[in-house]
From TrEMBL:
MF terms (GO), sorted A to Z: acyltransferase activity, transferring groups other than amino-acyl groups
Name used for this protein in its record: Trehalose corynomycolyl transferase B
SUPFAM superfamilies, alphabetized: alpha/beta-Hydrolases
Organism: Corynebacterium lactis RW2-5
Superkingdom of origin: Bacteria
Pfam families to which the protein is assigned, alphabetical: Esterase
Record keywords: Transferase
Species classification: Bacteria, Bacillati, Actinomycetota, Actinomycetes, Mycobacteriales
InterPro entries: AB_hydrolase_fold, Esterase-like, Mycobacterial_A85_antigen
Amino acid sequence: MSFTAVSRSFMAKVIAALVAVALVIGGVVLATAKDASADPNRDRLRPGCEWDPYNWWVQYCQVHSGVMERDIPVQIKAATGGGDASLYMLDGLYGYNKGASGWIWSGNIAQTFANDNITLVAPAAGDASFYADWNAPAVTRDGVKIQKWETFLTQELPVYLQNEFGVNPSRNAIAGLSMGASAAMSTAARHRDQFKHVTALSGYYQLSNPVVAAGTTAMVATTGVVNPTAMWGLPIPASPERMAHDPSKLFNELQGLPMYISSANGVPSLWSDPEVLKRPVPQLPDTVWRSVMESISRASTQQFERDARAAGLNATFAYSPNGIHSWETWSRDAALARPSILAALGL
């Protein structure tokens, strides 16, 4: 064999070897990229659930509540990485709709925590309930409903989450907005063994104050609840149940609990309400109502901060310069609370 032939044979073998190495390396890179995007915990659909049309790995699950005698829709995004921590999220008075959570569809919370090792838990259909155990069933437009939300959130739902999503019942954070803000705070205060952090956005905290008590009772009635006093009795005088769920009366129970509490000032802006300049005149009352509600929340939050500081609580209070009672405000504030939530859970 000539030198030239030997050289060609050698070069062919070198090229073949380089191609083989490239294919191996390429295969490793492709496999790594695929493994990075896939997650066996986040991608696995649980029994009784279906993939939510919102996407972002959100599952739409029906969780049976024996104490409320009905299935409760809960939207859940499993932790990325198989972690055992979770974040419960409570909606406001009017909810989003009867079968979905505003945190998912309007707050885009699944995107905010898309790659975090935390399970997102968003119960739906809790509108006008204050997420409490009512003294009597609620009479509503849709019939008579047993309202035992605190029992569901702290006893029934944790069992389901542990069995199906691997969530540790003692390693949770809880967030709420508007009505859900005070509910998140009182739930965490009354169940310190379960919750390690509270996020409260645009809330109302002096629930046993006569004016606030009368206002919240009236607001529940506006949702179609015929007997709003079935929750905690008459607004005046404050019942023991109302006092027990009033965050401003729970400072001892809240000691040492990390909290992120925020509100805006009720002033519309292009950030908090990007459609404000294009909104037709008939829709302006909604903007005015949202401005008023956020202004009241600001006053309530500031009073709660004064009382909390005096009681020795070291919560984080954040006041947005502009914003109304809207998902534009809450979505932004939830993203700002994210580092605090993850840190409290050791993530």
